[in-house]
Amino acid sequence: MAHDHHETEHRHGHGHRHGHGHGTDIDWNELGPLLESQAELFTPVYERAMAWLGQEVTEPGLIVDAGSGPGVVSCLFAEAFPGARVVAVDATAPLLERARDRAARQGVADRFDTLAGELPEVLDELEYPADLLWASRSLHHLGDQRAALAAFAERLTPGGTLALLEGGLPSRFLPRDIGIGRPGLQARLDALEEEWFARMRADLPGSVAETEDWPALLTAAGLKHTRTRTFLLDLPAPTPDRARAYVAAHLSRLREGIGEELDADDRATLDRLLDPSDPASVHVRPDVFVLGAYTVHTAVRRG
């Protein structure tokens, strides 16, 4: 199931790609192609975020993408910072294979590496500290987020920047009243996703409840100069085919993950939205759009 506003699209595009049924396990490898296409769709968000980061991080030698997934964003970093070496870090080796293939296709393989292992411990294997460590919706998959942030901060060079993509707003794809079913379907889906997210967090090993005040947590990790900026993805109707495909995939995973928790009317509405033969489906209806807000928090290690 997709947990767009909590995840990973991300983990990069991993837009919380959840597991199945009521469980909270996530098969990131199975989601590889979806993660890639989603991150590609969100490229304008990442490019604007990188331009903003570039105001502070001027000539990074090493950029670490912590929780990189298939490397779409890692490769964007390589293009945005042509003097930097980029290391894509992820626990799922097949996703890192995709990252290496992408780096080769895009001509940045000579300064692109991958590192397989669990965050944050695997960061100890980096050969030298990072000038920029980017964590896009990967932190909230770690049980003790405060401890993980401290570990991330330790891997920065003095004056280096830690950037978190966390929070933002739930994405919207359809008007409140879509002409079928009860108005406000997406808001009800959001509420169920929030409950799923709480279960996912509680089920993580060593899970610690934490107030999600990211600037305060960055400061507690010993960092300074916190900044926050939110970036919009605005793909208005009539939306391009790849955005329509993303909406269909997102709603399909919601149907798999939390569909049985909907009432019968909402479930029937969602089924119609996903039926390609139905004129009311997202596959053909003219009012489908993509509107999302993605928040990046940064802070700097003391010199």
From TrEMBL:
<feature type="region of interest" description="Disordered">
    <location>
        <begin position="1"/>
        <end position="25"/>
    </location>
</feature>
<feature type="compositionally biased region" description="Basic and acidic residues">
    <location>
        <begin position="1"/>
        <end position="10"/>
    </location>
</feature>
<protein>
    <submittedName>
        <fullName>Class I SAM-dependent methyltransferase</fullName>
    </submittedName>
</protein>
<dbReference type="InterPro" id="IPR013217">
    <property type="entry name" value="Methyltransf_12"/>
</dbReference>
<keyword id="KW-0808">Transferase</keyword>
<feature type="compositionally biased region" description="Basic residues">
    <location>
        <begin position="11"/>
        <end position="21"/>
    </location>
</feature>
<feature type="domain" description="Methyltransferase type 12">
    <location>
        <begin position="64"/>
        <end position="162"/>
    </location>
</feature>
<dbReference type="GO" id="GO:0032259">
    <property type="term" value="P:methylation"/>
</dbReference>
<keyword id="KW-0489">Methyltransferase</keyword>
<dbReference type="Pfam" id="PF08242">
    <property type="entry name" value="Methyltransf_12"/>
</dbReference>
<dbReference type="GO" id="GO:0008168">
    <property type="term" value="F:methyltransferase activity"/>
</dbReference>
<dbReference type="InterPro" id="IPR029063">
    <property type="entry name" value="SAM-dependent_MTases_sf"/>
</dbReference>
